[in-house]
Amino acid sequence: MTATLIVLGSANTDFTVLVDRHPQPGETLMGGDLVTATGGKGANQALAAARSGALPVLLGAVGADANGRAMLDALGSGGIDVSRTLTLEDAPTGVALITVSRDGENTIVVAPGANGRLSVESIVPIVRELAGPRTVLLAQLEIPLEVVVAAAEAVDAAGGRVVLNLSPSREIPDALLTLCDPLVVNESEAHDLAGATVDSVDDATAAATALLDRCRSIIITLGGEGAVFASPTGSGHVPAPRVTVVDTTGAGDAFVGAVCAELADGAALKAAVERGVAAGAAAVQWLGAQPPRR
């Protein structure tokens, strides 16, 4: 059996609290009620892809605990194939501690738990079984880098397409960059790669064009300004609609998941970016990384 969309990434339990402002070092603030929800970049992006019409297979790991069981139940009911998601006895389910200020900006600390225990040996055989010429692999960097590299190589060898969301930002091998089609980064991640300031649409367009020497195609997200994209066949800017921002936590993941759903369905890069921008704009209007269905 082959899969059209494989999402390789993290699954966390998110603990979110709303605050008037973010605390200074050494300061204690009173916040609102604690909100507990499923999260993690892999799970968030898989759910966003499912809500955009894809049938993603989630490759990742949870612990053999209550959080892990709740995670698999929630994601399975959300349209994600979790039959290949690993349950590990020797590690807890990952946790993210999130504060969201009244203006919608967030800070996040992640304890990876089972996500950090993924191995090449446990994941790559599954990827080889599922990957084919029409497969899109979506990966991020909240799991061990060597697992992402090996999985990307396996999908490329099968003739599939590799999409990497370079988040959290870190140095990655050039060999992985050359497989990315597209590489998805935000302004700060683009700055880390290109070594140039990315503060505007023009800056992002220039950075995207320059980075085409290192990857097959690229998308740079710009928050409220939408996203720019570049490939050997063309480039452009897709502006974002103006909306009331409640919480930016899940916007990037909603964007990437929707983009990959479109790519897995055979869409061109521009159409995929348009779908992603719309999904990101919808996500910021809700509290939490996985907004409810509408």
Descriptive report:
50% of the residues are buried. The chain has helices at residues 41-51, 66-77, 120-130, 145-157, 174-177, 187-194, 201-211, 251-264, 269-283; strands spanning 5-8, 12-19, 34-39, 57-59, 61-63, 86-88, 94-101, 106-111, 136-139, 161-165, 180-185, 218-221, 227-231, 234-238. The two termini are 32 Å apart. A hairpin with a 2-residue loop joins β13 and β14 (234-238). The mean pLDDT is 92. The protein has one domain (5-23, 32-283): Ribokinase (UDP-N-acetylmuramoyl-L-alanine:D-glutamate ligase, 3-Layer(aba) Sandwich), CATH 3.40.1190.20. By secondary structure, the protein is an alpha/beta fold. It is globular, with a radius of gyration of 18 Å. α8 runs antiparallel to α9. Helix content is 34%, strand content 24%. The longest helix has 15 residues, at 269-283. The strands form three sheets. Strands 4-1-9-10-11-12-13-14 form an eight-stranded mixed beta sheet, sandwiched between helices. Strands 3-2-7-8 form a four-stranded mixed beta sheet. Strands 5-6 form a two-stranded parallel sheet.
